[in-house]
Structure formats: C-alpha cells, structure tokens
Amino acid sequence: MHVLIAIPLISLLIVPAWASFGTSVNVIFFYMTWATLVLSHSALRVEIVGTATVRALCYALPSLLFYLFDILTPSAAVLLKAQGEYGLPAGNKKGKIRGKDLKVAAWALFNLALGIAVQGYVEDKLISRFRKLRLVKVTLKLPLPWNLVWQIFCGLVLREILSYVIHRWILHGRNRIARYHRTWYHNLRAPYPLTAHYDHPLAYLIGRWLPTILPVALWQLHMISYLAYLAFVSLEETFAYSGYSAMPTGFFIGGMARNMENHLHSIGTGNFGPWGVVDWLLGTHIEAEYTETGEKEEPPSSPIRLRRIRPNSAKEDLDDFLLDPPDNGDDDGDDDGGGNGGGGRHARRVSPRRVEGYWTGPPVRRRTRRNRHD
Predict the structure, then answer these.
(1) Range of 55's domain?
(2) Do both 116 and 19 map to the same domain?
(3) How far apart are CA 315 and CA 172, in angstroms?
(4) H helix intervals, the chain
(5) Do residue 125 and residue 89 come from a single domain?
(6) pLDDT in tens, 197-234
(7) Can you give the pTM of this predicted structure?
(8) How far apart (Å, rounded) are the C-alpha atoms in residues 84 and 52?
(9) Do the beta carbons of residue 157 and residue 216 sit within 8 Å?
(10) HSE-up of 29 (CA within 13 Å, CB side)?
(11) How far apart are CA 305 and CA 162, in angstroms?
(12) DSSP label at 247?
C-alpha cells in the first residue's frame, strides 16, 4: 500500500494543497517523492504498480461506474446515450441484465489484468537477460516539461498508426485471430462502458495491448511520461466506448466515440484507428449516420461478399463459408467471374441491416437442408 501512496501521479493530487508554498516547493516535494520511490523499490515494481494504479483510476473505476449506471438506472442512462435504448447493455431500458452482459464486463476486466501481467512478464525477462533493455525507463532524472509533452505526442501518434495497421490487416484479415475478433467483439450490439477491453484474450493482446505498449518501448519513454501517456489513453478509452452523447471535449472525444460506433455497426469495414486520422488519409473513414441537422444518412454499403450456399457442405466452417474479405477485383455486383467469382460463388454488394435507425452489418445467411421426400 505504501508503494501506491508513493507514486508521483498520486502525489500530484496532493500538490495543490501545498499551493501556498509556491511552485518551487511543490517541484521539490514531487522530486523527493519520486526519488524515494525509485531508491526504495525495484524498477519493475514501480512500473507494474504504477501501470495498475493508472489503469484502475483512469479506466476501470470510471467504466465500472458508468456500467453500473447503465444497468441499474437504464431510464436515466438512455437520455445520455447517443443510440438511445439500443446503446444500453441490455438493449432496452425495460430489459433485464443477462449473464452475457455480465460476462462482457468480466472478460474486459480480465483482459485488463492480463495485459498488466504480460507487461510484467516481458519486463522481467528483459531485465534478466538484457540489463539495459527495458520497456519503460525508470531513473532518478525527470524529463523536462517540453520533453514530456513531445514524448507523449510521439507515443500517441505511433499508437494511432500501429492500431490502424494491426486492426485492419490482422483483426480483419483471413486468420484465426480475425475470426476470434469477429465472433467476440463484433458480436456486441453497440459500444457501452467496459467494451473497450472486451475481446478474445489473444485478439486483445495483439489489437489493444500491443499498439499501446509498443510505442513506449520504441520511444523509450520515461516512467513519468509513460504514466501520463497511459492516463490519456485510459481516459480516451473510457469515454470513447461509453456510448454517451455528452462528452468532455465533445469535438475530439465525441468524434472518436461516433467512429467506434460506426466501426462496430459496419462489421469492421472502416474506422480502424482510435482517432480516425489514418482512416481519413487512407479513405477508410465511415461517416456518421446522422448529420448535424438530425437528418438520417444512408450508411455505406458493406464490401463483404457472400457465397452461395451449397447444401452438401457440412464439413466446412460456417464463418469461412459465408464470409469473404473484400478484394480489389470486380465489385459491381455481377457474377462475371471477376474477384471471388467462379466455383458457385456469387459476388454482390450487401445492403446493411437497420435496427432502430442503426445498421448492424449484412444480413446473415443460414444453411438450410432440403426436405427429403420418400
């Protein structure tokens, strides 16, 4: 417990109480706290306890409060939801909480703890084999304010690029991880609190944890810069996946929240990055469904292709049989042999389904058996 109290991030909350002593005394107090922490505990312990503290204060606790608010007072929460009743965990304000909704929250918290555990394991292996190679730099020397801002900015930019690349070409590719991501995360109706870290554990580590920790290792962020960077990312995930229409800094966080909703509803046809900057540059940005005047816009058609269903194919996996990833071939809806045509396949564009004013992706085709007549 004394390690938690000694973390400089916690001491920042105490510094305003010392305002009467001036800025110099506050800086000295902060440095003394940091020096005591570094000299009295191992670097690994400082890193892991600091990571767990920031994640708990900036993501887990506020997300849990939002989640309890949604499930305990749905009539009040629906007034703040951008998607109305459809954005509630139960799907409507009169619905009861199901075990599936609680399972989503449990898996999200498990993945959060798993990411911290994996980070500690990797850091321990790096320390034992390469003494000077670390994920986070823990030293007595503190970064200057402008260096602190620059390191945080570089980390966020690299995270945006890595998130886009991994999300688009790995989580939505033709592999087992993409199948896990599709059957776990894209099985949700809409984003709501705690869903930022809900996914299959393997897909979570590759798609969420890796883009967050890799910039820290590549830029060799100082521990103070890392804590500030992680706090920003945690707060971003808390509000961007809350589903609320009222957001702090609505232009920035609110736009990210709408991007996450459109990505989920379109079954991953766009909006792969957290900020949407790379999506805008590469043309994969999906516009919001509602304009500023409140008029509905038709969602873009999904480029996901469907194959014709063959009656005697029980041995094939249903997911691989029904869905093909988009390609750059002929996509005009005619079965002219281009793209994925041929072999009994039929390429066409699919109009997304609409559920209470929101689309949830292409209609699902189910395999049927022909009736046998004696």
Answers:
(1) 43-282
(2) no
(3) 24
(4) 2-6, 8-14, 23-40, 43-55, 61-72, 74-77, 99-129, 145-169, 176-184, 201-204, 210-219, 223-240, 255-265, 277-282, 318-322
(5) yes
(6) 999 999 999 999 999 999 999 998 999 999 999 999 99
(7) 0.73
(8) 33
(9) no
(10) 17
(11) 27
(12) -
